[in-house]
Amino acid sequence: MTPQVRVQAEPFDAATEIAALTEGRADIGAVVTFTGFCRDEGGRLAALELEHYPGMAEAEMMRVAGEAAARWPLTGLVAVHRFGTITPGQPIVLVVTASGHRAAAFDAAAFLMDYLKTRAPFWKREHLVDGTAGPWVEAKSEDDAAAGRWA
Amino acid sequence: MTPQVRVQAEPFDAATEIAALTEGRADIGAVVTFTGFCRDEGGRLAALELEHYPGMAEAEMMRVAGEAAARWPLTGLVAVHRFGTITPGQPIVLVVTASGHRAAAFDAAAFLMDYLKTRAPFWKREHLVDGTAGPWVEAKSEDDAAAGRWA
Amino acid sequence: MKLVYFAWVRERIGKADEEVELPAGIVTVTDLVRWLKGRGEEYAYAFENEGVVRAAIDHTHVKPDAPLDGAREIAFFPPMTGG
Amino acid sequence: MKLVYFAWVRERIGKADEEVELPAGIVTVTDLVRWLKGRGEEYAYAFENEGVVRAAIDHTHVKPDAPLDGAREIAFFPPMTGG
Lengths: 151, 151, 83, 83
Description:
Strand order of the largest sheet of chain A: 1-4-6-2
Strand content of chain A: 35-45%
Structural class of chain C: alpha+beta
Radius of gyration of chain A: 16 Å
Helix content of chain A: 25-40%
Strand content of chain C: 15-25%
Number of helices of chain C: 3
Order of helices and strands of chain A: EHEEHEEEHEEH
Number of helices of chain A: 4
Order of helices and strands of chain C: EHEHHEEE
Structural class of chain A: alpha+beta
Helix content of chain C: 25-40%
Distance between the termini of chain A: 23 Å
Oligomer: heterotetramer
Radius of gyration of chain C: 12 Å
Largest interface: A-B, 36 and 36 residues
Shape of chain C: globular
Shape of chain A: globular
Strand order of the largest sheet of chain C: 2-1-5-3-4
């Protein structure tokens, strides 16, 4: 199983990714998808700007994907992360995991998200509804704690 | 948030369900989907036949969905379970959870699957590739253990 | 009172549902199971291990000591294997 | 050696990347940070809290005591906030 990792400006489609992992296969029992969306934070945000480190973003996502593949018996793994300006309601990140059994698919997807949050080189900046650029989003200690539970 | 529960013979589409939960909303940060598929068990199975208890299946799925909605801050919840004859590679069950934050969406989806497995009145029977009807699938003690972790 | 059966419980009994008139003294699900077992070997076979077959009253799971009072439909079935 | 900066580290320093010739005695990432802080107040501002800014060598996360030997590209950036 070779993980698929993509960094792109374009939106993605969860159903297309599920179909690509399951097409023509009869050994997959479970597919979990996680999609992370841009929120408007109670009407405060006009958009999120996502900066990334080209080259390292793909490399680090592939390392995290490889760790998930080594840890759980997966039959498929896709991780897609967008960059650029993303408006509220639009998707930012997608993780898809496929396995014979549901626990592996669930755990691997949660692991991937926890690790992508803390290790993939992406940075979010807020753009406010009044047209000004807001602050860079601060990293959350709860994300470090979530990643720490897999150690 | 009113959970949506459906019992149907027809296939379903995960992307349609994600779109229905997220369309026009800017307060959703995370959507998790779980899709359970029919496996061929190493080439042994021609199909699974899914019997269900009409009326109670919907009622019990709605009770489980209500428990998830009471336990996690969800903005959307869909559970769809098919009945009838389902061939390897085809989907059987779909759960979609939406929330402001990813941990709630992940945990609620895993909870729903663990509880649907042990409480929703569906029974699987194997149909073998040699054309004969195989045995009814036996309940697994590991499924009871998985459901027990939420108690 | 309507009884409904599913999966291998239905196959062993040989019918999907039936109407029954309960004699006096049948108070709980366990009472009903013991009474059914006395009706023929197909019932005895279906309920040969009482701890395995599950019951529901009016679409809600119940334990063996649940009272039948007021029930319209009682279901018996094996442990669930959906999902 | 190429240095690249991201997010508010990039904004504080005022450039996205630059080529530097390191003087002798700059062995680790921490040595490099201290040398950069002496180059001007924009660097001092970017690295004002050395424990916050993260580093990567050739696309791999590294700790402050990582040796620079053989590195082609060193990146500095805030804690990640993707996902």
